[in-house]
Design brief:
Number of domains: 1
Distance between the termini: 19 Å
Oligomer: single chain
Largest sheet: none
Number of strands: 0
Radius of gyration: 17 Å
């Protein structure tokens, strides 16, 4: 199944998608690719908001804001997501359920990738409409989608999914 179809399926049948991902075995290259593409898309999602801030008369020019976002999303965020994946693995293990380090990374990184199109929309909304109730509601919907997909992936991992 293609990545785009898998992303769409993650909203309807996330456990099926995670079952297929975990059944591929230990694929560190894919897990890292999911993370880096997610971080790249999240970096791009920041551009409209950063442009709005720069045009509003901020002290930092747009290029400076983009440079900071680039450093944060492509260099710092992946390290934090690896740490979060380790905490998720330890949390599943604390519940005395089967889990692997790789499985936890795959679940977290795929959840980020699956929700990145919604995060792009949220970034556009923040850039064009600005912060407000609409952007807040969309932000909570995106967060809810991420947490739902992540929880379903962790359930599949804890159910004994390969990894």
């Amino acid at each position: 199944m293609s990545i785009t179809l898998s992303i769409l399926s993650s909203y309807r049948r996330p456990r099926t998608v995670f079952r297929a991902l975990l059944a591929q075995g230990r694929r560190e290259d894919r897990a890292l690719m999911y993370l880096m593409v997610s971080c790249l898309l999240l970096f791009v999602a920041q551009w409209p908001r950063l442009m709005r801030e720069a045009e509003a008369g901020g002290e930092v020019p747009f290029q400076g804001l983009v440079a900071g976002a680039l450093f944060g999303w492509l260099f710092v965020a992946p390290l934090l997501f690896f740490a979060l994946a380790a905490l998720l693995h330890l949390g599943v293990r604390a519940l005395r359920r089967p889990s692997t380090w790789h499985g936890a990374r795959t679940v977290l990184f795929w959840s980020l990738l699956a929700t990145s199109p919604a995060m792009l929309f949220h970034g556009l909304l923040l850039g064009y409409a600005g912060p407000g109730p609409g952007a807040t509601v969309v932000g909570f919907v995106v967060l809810g989608a991420f947490l739902y997909i992540l929880a379903q992936g962790l359930r599949e991992l804890a159910a004994g999914g390969a990894g």
